[in-house]
Design goal:
The strands form 3 sheets. Strands 8-9-10-7-11-12-13-16 form an 8-stranded mixed sheet. A 6-stranded parallel sheet has the order 3-2-1-4-5-6, with helices on both faces. By secondary structure, it is of the alpha/beta class. The chain has helices at residues 17-26, 40-49, 60-64, 80-89, 104-117, 131-142, 167-182, 292-306, 314-332, and strands at residues 6-11, 30-36, 54-56, 70-73, 93-97, 121-124, 148-158, 189-195, 204-210, 216-222, 224-236, 240-244, 252-255, 258-261, 275-278, 282-283. The protein binds nicotinamide-adenine-dinucleotide (NAD).
Amino acid sequence: MSEKPLRIGVVGYGYWGPNLVRNFSASPLTHVAAVADGDAERRQAVSQLYPWVRVAEAADEMLADPAIDAIAVATPLGTHHELCKRALEAGKHVLCEKPLADSLARCEELVRLAQQRRRILMVDHTFVFTGAVRKIKEYVEAGALGDVLYFDSVRINLGLFQSDSNVIWDLATHDLAILDFVIGKSPRWVTAVAVSHFGNLENLAYLTIGFDGDLIAHLHCNWISPLKVRRILIGGTRRMLVYDDTEPSEKLKLYDHGITISSPAQAKGKHEMLVQYRTGDVLAPKLDGTEALARVVETFARACALGEPPVTDGAAGARVVRVLEAAQRSLEQHGARVTP
Ligand SMILES: NC(=O)c1ccc[n+]([C@@H]2O[C@H](COP(=O)([O-])OP(=O)(O)OC[C@H]3O[C@@H](n4cnc5c(N)ncnc54)[C@H](O)[C@@H]3O)[C@@H](O)[C@H]2O)c1
């Protein structure tokens, strides 16, 4: 690996950009050379904390600077495609905030461009880099859950209304990225219903996603809940798990619970005829507590140095947007089943 840290330009220093700049600054693998934000107050905030970082109103200067190796895009969704495209065309590696772009076609264009220019295109699917989600993947791959039957997520709070995307493109993206990483199967159909209580953008949504076989996923996201809930249940034929991201410790619990279907020949009473419940131990595994964004930064820097695609590469970003786009189409067809 190259010994020189990757020189980064960050575009967008609103709510999330500061977390990227903090993690890029803390890593020995990366160096923040410049930050661009259209808002003067946000540029001042950068200069106060990082007086050595160059600030600018727009990305043009950093895109033209041959000393900058990579661009991180932390602006609203509607700007991702244009900024990523310009960065790739300027020969930079790109780390883009989720979701990668506002349509599948635009994601695919970025993926092609990155391939042509031999640059890394990575999406910040942050949850994929949490200790909890990595452990869940380990369990699923090792068969600890048996066959996965369902994935059920609730991601609700008094959330930040996004300026140009509804709650599905904002919050469901996280769960779709987790589903893509952990389950790794292509959905067969998607239904979405949602409502916009204020203005044009939907703030409350329910998505249902069907896969081959009996696997089904349900995602509930809401920007106007008084309670903050970040919970995923995954049920399998052998075990079940609950991931509660709001728990300070013991975020993940593996339940050795399940059901056994008895054949009519073995059954005695009416209630025993089909279903027998099994409850066993509950395990709270030790998790890697490293901040997920620190892992994102490390993964991106290593991918750029080695030229190897990261786990949340442009193709992963496109797979998530394929489902988001199908959900949007379903929404427009009053919850009809849509093939992604
Ligand atoms: N990975 C995560 O967990 C996570 C969490 C929150 C937000 N995000 C993502 O981060 C992105 C930004 O979200 P946010 O909540 O920080 O938004 P925000 O509106 O708070 O900040 C965006 C900033 O970008 C600036 N900006 C917009 N267009 C620009 C341009 N063309 N050039 C320069 N500056 C520009 C704005 O002035 C603003 O300061 C979104 O894609 C969002 O989905 C990711």
